[in-house]
Amino acid sequence: MTGRFGEGAGCRNPGARLTVQSNQNGLACPGQYFDDHAGETQMLSEEDKGKLANRLRRVSGQVAAVQRMMDEDVYCVDILTQIAAASGALGKVGQLLLESHIQSCVADAVRSGDAQRQEEKLAELIEIFRKYASIVD
Question: Which family does it belong to (predicted)?
């Protein structure tokens, strides 16, 4: 299955080397890294990097605008609006990366039938949500 940002977008096991052996489906992120096999470094494809880089450039511009606004003593509410926009844009980058991870790495672990890999990915997702999920009143 291909995620929004392609197969294997940025997925790896924490602490593992960035070498990976593709599975029978050609997914670049099978969820298992091999220290004893030479492989290619698997991160985002060039196309996906470009898409995310464009989003991050927009975020960077928004953050720079916040600094300029503060330097120019712009009305506080206007600055807060710009901060909210930058925060939302950066959050969207994270959402897209998470979506890609679920659609490629997690889905591949589920399809593998390997209970240990499935449990590891489930634990990883739980940790991601603990760290990054925001609960709004």
Answer: Belongs to the FrmR/RcnR family.
**DSSP character at residue 3:** B
Tell me if 137 is assigned to some domain: no
- Structure pTM? 0.61
* Segments in the chain forming alpha helices (H): 46-71, 76-101, 107-112, 115-132
For tokens 């760290």, the residue is 131
- Residue 17 is predicted with a pLDDT of 38
Number of structural domains in the chain: 1
From the centroid of its chain, how far is CA 104? 12
pLDDT tens for 11-20 read 554 444 333 3
Per the CB < 8 A criterion, the answer to whether 12 and 39 are in contact is: no
Nearest residue to 48 (alpha-carbon basis) of 73, 29, 71: 29
* Eight-state DSSP code of residue 4: T
Helix, strand or coil for residue 103?
Answer: helix
Boundaries of domain holding 10:
1-132
Cα 46 off chain centre by: 15
Specify if 32 maps to a domain: yes
